[in-house]
Amino acid sequence: MKKQHISFIKVLSLVTVLMIFASCKRDNNYTGHAYFPDMAYSNAFETYGSSPNYADSVVMMHPVEGTVPRGVIPYQYGAKSFDEQQRAGQELVNPFMPEKEVLKRGQEQFNIYCAMCHGEQGMGDGYLYTNKLFPVQPTSLRGDYVQNKPDGEIYHVITRGSISGLMGAHGSQILPDDRWKIVTYVKNGFEVK
Ligand code: HEC
Questions:
Q1: Do 139 and 146 meet the contact criterion of CB atoms below 8 Å apart?
Q2: Which long-range contacts (CB under 8 A, 24 or more apart) does 107-114 make?
Q3: pLDDT for 149-193, tens place per residue?
Q4: How far, in Å, from the CA of 120 to the mean position of ligand 1?
C-alpha cells in the first residue's frame, strides 16, 4: 500500500515536470492562450477614423455644448458693439504691471500680431498698409484716442476686433495673458524698460 502511494507521487511529479516543459514554446512572440480574447485584444478605433457605433460615425466626439476647458474663463463681451466694448473697458482689469518681462513678451507678441498693420511703433504705418496690401490706414496706437482708452477696451479690441470689423478678432490666436501683455506694452510707450 505504502509503495503504491510513493509511485503515485513520482508519477505526479513526472507529469508536472513534463507539463512545465511542454508549456515552453520556441516562438518568443507567442503570448500563450488568452481567456476572453475579445477583452485581451480590444478593437480600438483610430481617433480620426470612423466607427459604426456612433450615429455620425465620428470617433473623436465634440465636447458637450457649453463645456469649458479647465482654467479658461469664457469671454463674455460681444463683438462689434460700442456698448460691449465700453463695458469691457469699465469691468476688465489688467492683471499685469509694466515689468520688464511683461513688456518684453508684449513686444514680441505685438510684433508678430499687430505690427504689420499698426507699425512696430504703433504709428499706423505697418508694411501691409504702406505697401497698399491693406486698404485703410490702421488707427495710430500712439495718439490720445487709443492711449486714453482703458486697458480693458484695448483688450476687447484685440479679442473681438474693431466695431466696424475692419480690424479682425485675434481672440483665437493670442492667449489671454499675452493680450494683456500687448496692452501693457502699447500703454507704456512701446518700450521695454
Ligand atoms: C489686418 C490689420 C490689423 C491688425 C493685424 C491689427 N489691427 Fe488694430 N486696427 C486695424 C484697423 C484698420 C483699425 C481701424 C478699425 C476701425 O476703425 O474699425 C484698427 C484699430 C485698432 C484699435 C482702435 C479700436 C477702436 O476702438 O477704434 C486698437 C486699439 C487696435 N487696432 C489695436 C490692435 C492690436 C493691439 C493689434 C494686435 C493684436 C492689432 N490692432 C492688429 C488694423 C489691424
A1: yes
A2: 107/185, 107/190, 107/192, 109/174, 109/178, 109/181, 109/182, 109/185, 110/182, 110/185, 110/186, 110/190, 113/170, 113/173, 113/174, 113/182, 114/141, 114/182
A3: 999 999 999 999 999 999 999 999 999 999 999 999 999 999 998
A4: 13
- Mention every residue, 6+ apart, whose C-beta is less than 8 A from residue 192: 100, 103, 104, 107, 185
Q: Is the CB of 125 under 6 A from ligand 1?
A: no
The Å distance, Cα 167 to ligand 1 centre, comes to: 5
Cα–ligand 1 centroid distance for 139 (angstroms)? 6
Judge if the beta carbon of residue 115 lies within 6 A of ligand 1. no
Q: For residue 124, is pLDDT > 60?
A: yes
